[in-house]
Amino acid sequence: MELSTAAWMFHxxxxxxxxxxxxxxxxxxxxATRLPPFLSILIGTFIAGVGAGLPPEEVAKAxxxxxxxxxxxxxxxxxxxxxxxxxxxxxxxxxxxxxTLLGLGKGRSLPWVMALVAxxxxxxxxxxxxxxxxxxxxxxxxxxxxxxLLKIAIPALAGMTTLHALMPPHPGPLIAVGxxxxxxxxxxxxxxxxxxxxxxxxxxxxxxxxxxxxHVEAPADIGALFxxxxxxxxxxxxxxxxxxxxxxxxxxxxxxxxxIALPTESTLGLxxxxxxxxxxxxxxxxxxxxxxxGWAAGMPRADVGNTLRKAIAPIAVLLLTIGAxxxxxxxxxxxxxxxxxxxxxxxxHMPYLLLAWLIAVALRQATGSATVAxxxxxxxxxxxxxxxxxxxxxxxxxxxGAGSVFFCHVNDAGFWMVRExxxxxxxxxxxxxxxxxxxxxxVGLVGTLVLWHFLT
Length: 456
Known about the structure:
The protein is mainly α. The protein has 2 domains: about 1-60; about 65-455, no CATH class. Helices cover about 80% and strands about 0% of the residues. The chain contains 21 helices and no strands. Helix 5 runs parallel beside helix 7 (about 150-165) and helix 15 packs antiparallel against helix 20 (about 415-420). About 55% of the residues are buried. Its main location: membrane.
């Protein structure tokens, strides 16, 4: 028994050291040798996988599987989002929306308006979908208002990522709600109570502070794509422009409501679920943009086609990098990092909320996946939560969601999306994205602890 325990301890210690070594290697390769992120992550993956005991060929298979899975899930969505953003920029729709938003908020109030808009758009959308939709608005708003890019971007990022972490029907909170048998409506209400202060602190307040200390120019390729002056002979109306950008939001919200309120096999329910799939919703938005923002606005069909084609080139590096991050995540999962952290957690004795948050933090740091962190943590804690009251179960689910976004780094797809879209260096991305998410995570934990005190 002692020998098996010693063997277990050696394997787990080696595995966690390999994870840390891989992350350190990736950071060093990118920052010191200036290797492309894709190649750096690939090298880091083999360091971690082989060091953890996986045969090299298994590491290669795991990397390919993980890269293919995340590109199949997010790659096409990002490509469609880039097309939609380019059409909105060149047709003048993004300019029209920016003009209206500038009328609602100027100067100091503008970041707060951006945070509110991002929360509305981000309520039913996955973060990746919300980001590709918001990027053209962010660039145009920064150009039109003469405000620092980060002052506009950070509130938008905070609004979307906070709802993704704390508000059902996003996958993470919804998985935790199901596993812990928490009340969905109560969890949504408490999640909103936590989301508001988290967005305020991580968004406008942090954005104002950071933008004065970190100056970032729009990247030449993507910035030119989304910040170009409108080329359409007739600028679309605000109503059409808003409808196009909200079309995926409406379709995905309809899908969510169908899953909650309609019978599983009803024709209406199945139709709404189909239309609300992120791939379908964004594809329909692109088609609607081609017709309403391009052809109907007087743009020649050849120009519309060229706009769609040139939107793809600037995101090629981003897609490769995101795929590499998915490969690293899958390799770590195949090496058994989730089981290692689960074994440690099962022997821990601490308050439920803190335990839930810490397990989710550890899993997210090791795997780079909020969904893996949420699912595994909820599975570990579910047997312990059987006798909890409804508010307590909801708060544990929210603590898991908060922990799943703590200090997201080089194994996180969102990290590389933010880096590439805004043309950041590695250190800058940590300040913009990793610290922002840490603020959301810590505010979420503190908020759940406060609500636990008052509700139990």
